[in-house]
Prior knowledge:
The protein is α/β, with parallel strands linked by helices. It has helices at residues 2-18, 45-48, 70-82, 94-108, 133-141, 153-156, 190-208, 217-234, and strands at 21-23, 34-38, 57-62, 85-88, 112-115, 127-128, 145-151, 171-174, 212-213. It contains eight helices and nine strands.
Amino acid sequence: MFYWVVKAILWPFLHSVFRPWAEGVDNVPKEGPVILAGNHLSFADHFFGALFLPRKVISLGKSDYFTGRGIKGILSRAFFSGVGTVPIDRSGGKASEAALRTGKRILGEGQVLAIYPEGTRSHDGRLYKGKTGVARLALESRAPVIPWAMVNTFEMMPPGRLFPKLGIRPGVRFGKPLDFTRYYGMEEDRLVLRAVTDEIMYALMELSGQEYVDKYAASAKVEAARLAKENRGRG
């Protein structure tokens, strides 16, 4: 119920101020389990990604969003709960298995699950290599996978910016369902998981128009931070 209250409050405001747009909404099934596999450009994605869908969209978010203290912690928990985020531990290893179990449970309940295969927001607006957890979920749950591409949200609210820029219209494109039935029963094969994930990322690249980088976003962020530090040192 809280999700729909938040959406009812946000939709008129966001629509009138930012004039968001959407394409391919009809590609998302009206019922049953669905995996929305998306790029992740900005914090603004949380606001605009699911606005046009008549179904509740659940995403998996880091548990830090729900453990803060004081007023800031209360507001963080309220916001992420309101936009359908379920807290998970993203530290890897056993935590990754727990996240997959949570995702399978959500899909088993016939709900819509949003996943960002890159694992983190892009620091430079490019599309990075996807992690294979989305492929495992797709093959184990056999839920349809819809590529879900955010457009212009990086330009509107890049990393480090507290408030979105006005005059930039954010958009979202929903692609056609991707067919992975030929891989069912092969979810333990690493090569298959990589192939499925790469197919998803290719679909996102085509939908979003982003430049693709064949490395993980987290590693690229670390590398960019190191280079920036070195350049400051030379200056």
